[in-house]
Amino acid sequence: MNRFLLPVAAAAISFAASAQDLPKSSPHGAVEQVIGLTKVDVDYSRPSARDRQIFGDLLPFGKLWRLGANMNTTIEFDGPVVIDGNPLEKGKYSMFAIPDKEFWTLIFNKNTQLWGEGDYKPEEDVLRVKARGSPSEPTETLTISFDEVKDDQARMDIRWERTRASVMIKADATRQGMANVKEALAKEDVKAGTYNSCASFALDRGVMTKEALEWAGKAVNMDPKFYFIHTLARAQAANGMKQEAIATAEKSMEAAKKAGDLAYVKKNEALIKEWAGK
What we know:
7 helices; elongated; alpha+beta
């Protein structure tokens, strides 16, 4: 090779490499959310409105949309979920949408290597759900986010321009949580905090209340902190021992006062009032 051509070739290679790093008009975005014990990962490209009318114009109503730009938007669940009452197995899916004036059709498709709508095949759909579209605050750049994350469920929002489409995603953590409890308590040298957290989980879920009473008692015997005593009071009440629960909650409240923890003072006061029927 002519040695005088080497700098030119090197420059071409350098340009090709740097060209891949140029900013995109629709940059990559990602969001992760844990619902219950299930992790949800969304990967998408985020176009901006740029003074354009989006829905009903750039994106006509009733027409399939890749729900983003560039590669199709994907969503991955590491456990089974229920989307607006419709079960969906764990896995990774591409997401499409058909926007309309009031309701969108949100589509979960098993082909995750799509670019745009061209290679989309409806026979590869795994689930279709209706998402209510509603007016929202102005959103310049397409945004997928999660809100109302509580009680093993979350609302997934798709916001762009002045529109929001939403679906509820549920992921029951009780079964997996109880498996985690069993695993934790099978270990050697179980700590008071582990007994307490296992008891609290069972009481929150309304399962294994007799076992929760045993675990809470072990936590208090090992370390009589006011918050462990509080859990024991809850466990006693869950097993029909209201008088004992009131006495235990009073102990927890006094200890919380000495520790200066107003939150636990109020928690105990509320439970005592509830159990005493006042």
